[in-house]
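Appendix B: complex inputs.
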Amino acid sequence: MRVDIISIFPEYFAPLDVSLMGKARERGILDIRAHQLRDWAHDVHKTVDDTPYGGGPGMVMKPSVWGEAVDAVIAGGRPRMIVPTPSGRPFTQAVAMEYATEPWLLFAPARYEGIDARVIEEYGSRLRVDEVSIGDYVLAGGEAAVLVIVEAVARLLPGVLGNAESARDDSFAPGAMENLLEGPVYTKPPTWRGRDVPEILLSGHHGRIARWRRDQALRRTAQNRPELVARLELDRNDHAVLDSVRDGASFREAGGDMAD
Ligand code: ADE
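Resulting structure:
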């Protein structure tokens, strides 16, 4: 997959040389090219922003500089263009999976109050352009969002994850585990600082271990993301687990002991 990123901070993307992303690049699975937006600014100060029409605080990124930059980088090609912004549609695992099928992504992260809206209009008529938000909070710029999106997408590309770390059972991946958060995990030693690994995991009963893991996943989902529970397909056992979580919650709300 080819990934172009146009930014006033191309050095922000150095972490993409590390770990799994670095290996994917070495193997030729990922071809990441970070470009300096200011290379397409023509005044001595390499200005990329200007005051907003209609007034208001902050600055807006100039369409002329973005237009020249995008034209030069795509050179007549048709990448999927992604503009990170808190006003975009939510970035989810399903969107990551969709992007992972694309041969070429172009990211346009903004600083200041954003990019002149005509840039999105212009390229929206020539390419597929998505305005995407990584969450309900405001970052200082879109660069950190690009890191998040690239990592979530690239780990889905064939050959990036080993079998041992398969993406199949990810929380939020469409399928049996969709909307179920992953439960706790343990490794050796069996006792650490007086805390034991749950005995069931040492029992070798695969069926019971699977049931226990589902129970734990349900508990965590109910506690941390109660809005996801309504979307789960539940069996009788699941209902019993959720009832016990709810009983624990009302006990705690009434001022009971935090331990369950
Ligand atoms: N830029 C600033 N905040 C952002 C967010 N939450 N998601 C994507 N891009 C952003």
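The radius of gyration is 23 Å.
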